[in-house]
Amino acid sequence: MSDRAALLRGIRVWLVLFVVCLVLSGATAFPLVHELRWTESALRALSVPDHLPGLWDWIERVRTGLDTADSDYPFLLYGTDWLAFAHLVIAVAFYGPYRDPVRNIWVVEFGMIACAGIVPLALVCGPIRGIPFWWSLIDMSFGVFGVVPLYVVRKKIKRLEALGAAPRPMAAPAA
Fold first, then answer.
1. Among 1, 52, 79, 127, which is most exposed with the fewest C-beta within 10 angstroms?
2. Residue among 1, 7, 6 nearest 102 (CA)
3. What is the pLDDT of residues 94-119, one digit of tens each?
4. The organism sits in which domain of life (predicted)?
5. SS3 call for 81
């Protein structure tokens, strides 16, 4: 396998990994109410209320809030539907670098900027919305872990770019 083919394959593998995580992250924003009920049951079965009361109190508070919103103000959850949709749309954008990485490196760089933006958003909006700092750290980890595959992809794209354009087959002589 040529260096060019190996780089392209590596870029595509990392991009697929990133897109799968982005889609899963987005898809989980649709069924929040049911997920939190399931999470609460699982944590109860694991005796989390006894061992991590702070985590338990937070999960219970969030579940109560979501149950109330779902029963009394379901339109509020429409915002999380749009959050999920945004994840899916952003994932589609990564088809560009999958198809032509050098030409579409800007999508990868945009993704890196978005990952970096998670940190200040969590630090500013978390306290305003009453989110515990330790939960904001979990939110920030999405940006920190998300930027890793994008950084690897960007480095590989730069190496691919340095190799130059793929050689084109010669045209057959005119008869």
1. 1
2. 7
3. 999 999 999 999 999 999 999 999 99
4. Bacteria
5. helix
